Amino acid sequence: MSTLNSEIQYLGGVGPKRAALLRSELGIETFGDLLHIYPFRYIDRTSITPIREVRGELAYVQVQGTIVSSTLVSKHLSVIVDDGTGQMEMVFFKITKWNVERLKPGSAFLFFGKPSEFNGRLNMVHPEVDSPVVGGADSKGTLTGVYPSTEKLKNGGITGKVMCKLQSAALAMCLPEIKETLPDYILKENALVPLAYAIRNIHFPADSYALQKSVRRLKFEELFFLQLSLLKQKYIQSRNSVGLPVNKVGTAFNDCFNALPYELTGAQKRVIKEIREDMRSGHQMNRLLQGDVGSGKTMVAVLSALLAVDNGFQSCIMAPTEVLAQQHYANICKYLSPTSVRCALLTGSSTAKERREIHAGLEDGSIGMIVGTHALLEDNVLFRSLGLAIIDEQHRFGVDQRAKLWSKGPGGIPPHVLVMTATPIPRTLAMTLYGDLDVSVIDEMPPGRKPVKTAMISDAKKGSVYNFMRKQIALGRQVFVVYPLIFESEKMDLNNLEMGYEEIVKRFPDPDYKVAIVHGQQTAEVKNFNMAAFAAGRAQILVSTTVIEVGVDVPNASVMVIESAQRFGLSQLHQLRGRVGRGADESYCILVHDYKTSAEARKRLELMCNTNDGFEIAEEDMKMRGPGDLEGTQQSGLPIKLSIASLAKDGLMLNEARVYADKVLDADPKLELPVNKLLADELRKGKYDIKDYSKIS
Ligand code: ADP
Ligand code: MG
User: Fold this and answer.
1) For a surface tag, which of 93, 254, 319, 341 has the fewest beta carbons within 10 Å of its beta carbon?
2) pLDDT per residue over 124-151, tens digit each?
3) 676 Cα: distance to centroid of ligand 1 (angstroms)
């Protein structure tokens, strides 16, 4: 057995007890695993700032000094440090046994953190604490790695210093065994340093240049293999699946197209072309269509469906809620009126008689296009010849459901699949999460759209919000007021909403004003009735929970008031805001927040005020929360674990890696050439497989 695979407990200085800790805290089983735990930052021994020169506005600094006092104040530990040039306070809100015992007067430490000034006094909140640097730079180089750690590790004696020693020991034993994972030609073409060099220098950098080279090499490797694995899967998939032939453009498409009341945007045209190329390629289409709210995805869906119809196939559009399905149906009927295509609506509330007729029409082929909810997935819904399945708002559907649609194609051949989403996903994440889908993006809004003016306001100033609403209503506009789900219990949420409703009704009394209310506890009938009242302009204000989040289109609504806005995530705020700004009028989004708003939530609200670009918001969301926490993926985190690269921060390199992986596969799709043997071997280990796509939708 190789040393790399030796159990970690046999490394000098570890033993069974520490081995158990390393396993439970960092997932380390072997020497090799240890070497794959990289420092997340480095202490530069040459740059220690004298306290005299520290200023509150400086970014991160290191200071080194002796503790002169250490006091437990009610909720924090206050430590005063003196370095001979001045004194500064270190504040620890998390008081641990470890801190209290170690941070004693008389002992010296190196502190790393962000300085701030409070009442004219300098301090650092929660600095990282390391042993002091003695006698300047040592011979091993000036950069010392700081490893990820936990309270348990520290208490178990695995301090930063010990970690460095363990890494050094493991490296000494394993370095000769570290085998290159990338073929020579790839190293050369991408100017990458060898793996052994990178591993040595990521732990113990010879200098900052060596470190930089090593980081690049390790990140590139990770992203490259990830993309190689995804793209290889896709190559195989598209080679295997037969696609229904959608070749010609016929009368249904042309009749609809020629009667359009507007010109398609450049982005819509481009995407329709991409879809058309896909559907006539001879392979099954599996495409994700991303487009911000209001970018005009419905039109793209309709024209794609008509392409299928013109080639003798049926198509279906599936929406996540009944309200949305109805709205789609109404819109689509309008678009289809210049054609002779018969369209139907199937939802949970279709009557038995309607169902019978629809089932029959689908089976004999007289219904060319059907719009519906999950009801479409039922086993007794059979098509004569389903050629295209369109799924709207995909994050609400699982992959199982996608698979169910696959099985409804004619003669066992799966229909083409178009998945539409208005939740912009950062490109880097989409490339990874939807490795099995091609991605089209509508990145252009129909002309004449004005950005929604957005402001945040404290709930203490609600009066001004009501005044503003009155003015807009006087201009003939309508207003949404949305409440979040606050309590765990549905009943309490409803109370909260109803209290808000009563308040609004009091401020906007009958008969001058009509206020409608919509929430999840109402029957479909009541919900539709109230929704319709608002859509038709019979009510000026709609009070609701987030049920109106997706899709609903009321062009005359110009104001979106979001209550307790601090409780919403960025992408949800963006979705909600997308409900206004659909007409030509100036429109507004008012984010009402209360005194409990955290700094982080404030940052989210500020971002909303500063941009209307869904992709920018999604990127920021990912940076603020990390990719594993993005809405829609949060239940399960990312389906793959990376050791050094970050999907949020290394977007450029991810792109570079993807392009290069594509080039490699283009020359050798199955990685069979001898030069690529290393690549095939590495993929076979399975580290880069994303097995369970259902986890991410
Ligand atoms: P979404 O992408 O959010 O589903 P929709 O398809 O509902 O957007 O379109 C939003 C609105 O924009 C609709 O009222 C639609 O009629 C209109 N629209 C779509 N495409 C265009 C276009 N090219 N020019 C002008 N208006 C358009
Ligand atoms: Mg839509």
Assistant:
1) 93
2) 888 888 878 765 444 445 788 888 888 8
3) 47
